[in-house]
TrEMBL record:
This is PLP-dependent aminotransferase family protein. SMART domains: HTH_GNTR. Its cofactor is pyridoxal 5'-phosphate. PROSITE patterns: HTH_GNTR (PS50949). GO terms for molecular function: DNA binding; DNA-binding transcription factor activity; pyridoxal phosphate binding; transaminase activity. It comes from Paenibacillus nanensis. Keywords: Aminotransferase, DNA-binding, Pyridoxal phosphate, Transcription, Transcription regulation, Transferase. In the C-terminal section; belongs to the class-I pyridoxal-phosphate-dependent aminotransferase family.
Length: 468
């Protein structure tokens, strides 16, 4: 007897294969389909549900890609064992206090950029690594730690940077930091950029701009073209630009990818002007329509690129762990200055992340998250296409964990207010322009990392009700 009998709505905007995939996934997660239980064959289930074999095959393929089921040779598909997910602690109920405002109501669907798929995070493995770290010798985890960071972890990061981004470096070139903003702040101090002009893409990441402004730097906005930063305009900035900050693998927030020809021009600018390039490679792990491309640092034969990487998207934001790969030519001066600094990342966290990487959990998690975000990216783009049609244009949707939507003829402030009435929270990207009024008024930013495929479909459906 077939145990898979979902109610499939053929006139729904959600594709049939997605409805079937979500139903089976829910059955596995609830335990209704037990570990090692065989799924019906593709032919049997297609006949039972009255759908095509391609539909069933697509649903099974997505389940297999995310690790819910596995295909056995001549044995069909069987349910895989799921890791037990540690439940999040619920906050204590707060006693109502006089003269205080009520907590804002949480939206049903929050399209916030930067959220990750906490429901897919391997809590059990991470907890085991934290416990193992705490069992180490006290001097290894309870002190201040190496000013550069845990050496073994820097070895693992050097290996990962080479395998994933083509960057060749020595662990001594790596400096650990507590997030990208802290990394930029450290660079400004270590390189003496506090009174310098820093060229930066326009638009560009507001979080980094804030650090630069608060450190006394002068930001020199350089316009972006369809393929990234305008190199000729950078040349025109001349000696004012001490360094340039770029996001070549996925420009933030517009999402374009800098091609090899422009990368070479940018590297040539650095050599000719004896300047450095700060490359922020913040979410390069997640590309959906093409193979991974090498980092700008991987093309740097003249030691002119300072590389910023982060584990916030591929691992956990709460770990507060980013890293800088310094040019070898700057190491002596940087190391001398760092002797006066304490390492900002907790030695306990560093030890646990080292164990997590050493035991192979990190790479497995990256592969898992790549599949998860690809599925969520597909769900969001398909839902936008189905519900909005030609009324919306998606921008920067080839990689990363967010995209921009251009709702032609609309104003973002109106769209945000209307979305809120339908229980949805969307965002304006205007703060990433030096002059927010330069941002096209019809742009909204949608992050998708923290929402499931079903939530993305329902969220976009509600946005359609709100906007059209």
């Amino acid at each position: 007897m077939l145990s898979i009998t979902p109610l499939l709505t053929k006139d729904s905007k959600m594709p049939i294969y997605m409805q079937l995939y979500l139903y089976i996934r829910k059955e596995i997660e609830s335990g209704a389909l037990a570990t090692n239980q065989h799924l019906p064959s593709i032919r049997q289930l297609a006949q039972h549900l009255g759908v095509s074999k391609n539909t069933v095959e697509a649903a099974y393929g997505q389940l297999a890609a995310e690790g819910y089921v596995a295909s056995r040779e001549r044995g069909g598909y069987r349910v895989e064992r799921l890791e037990e997910i540690t439940p999040l602690l619920k906050p204590l109920e707060e006693t109502a206090m006089p003269h205080t405002n009520a907590k804002p109501q949480k939206p049903d669907f929050d399209f916030r950029y930067g959220e990750i798929a906490f429901d897919r995070f391997p809590h059990a493995h991470w907890k085991a690594c934290v416990v193992e770290a705490l069992s180490m010798e006290p001097e290894q985890v309870l002190g201040y730690g190496d000013s550069l960071g845990h050496y073994g972890l820097r070895e693992e990061i050097a290996r990962y940077a080479y395998q994933s981004r083509g960057v060749v470096c020595h662990p001594d070139q790596i400096l650990l930091s507590a997030g990208t903003q802290h990394a930029v702040s450290m660079l400004i101090q270590l390189l003496g950029l506090g009174s310098s002009g820093i060229a930066m893409e326009e638009p560009g990441y507001d979080g980094v701009k804030s650090v630069m402004r608060n450190s006394g730097c002068t930001i020199l906005p350089i316009q972006v073209e369809a393929d990234g930063i305008h190199v000729e305009q950078l040349h025109e900035a001349g000696a004012e630009a001490g360094v340039v900050y770029v996001t070549p693998s996925h420009q933030f927030p517009l999402g374009m990818v800098m091609p090899i020809q422009k990368r070479q021009k940018l590297l040539q600018w650095a050599v000719e002007n004896e300047r450095y390039i700060i490359e922020d490679d913040y979410d390069s792990e997640f590309r959906y329509n093409s193979a991974p491309i090498p980092a700008l640092k991987a093309l740097d034969t003249n030691d002119r690129v300072i590389y910023l990487g982060t584990l916030s998207k591929s691992f956990l934001p709460a770990a507060r762990l980013s890293y800088i790969i310094m040019p070898a030519s700057l190491l002596d001066g940087v190391h001398r200055k760092l002797e006066l600094y304490s390492q900002a990342v907790s030695p306990i966290i560093q030890q646990a992340v080292w164990l997590f990487m050493k035991h192979g959990h990190f790479m497995r998690n990256v592969r898992r998250m790549r599949r998860v975000y690809q599925s969520r990216h597909r769900a969001l783009t398909e839902a936008i296409r189905e519900h909005f049609g030609e009324r919306a244009e998606t921008i920067g949707d080839r990689s990363g964990m967010h995209l921009l939507v251009n709702l032609k003829g609309c104003r973002s402030e109106d769209l945000i207010a209307l979305a809120e009435q339908q229980g949805c929270k969307v965002y304006s990207p205007a703060k990433h322009w030096n002059n927010p009024s330069d941002c096209p008024p019809s742009y909204v930013m949608l992050g998708f990392g923290g929402l499931s495929e079903q939530q993305l479909w329902e969220g976009v459906r509600r946005l359609k009700e709100a906007w059209f």
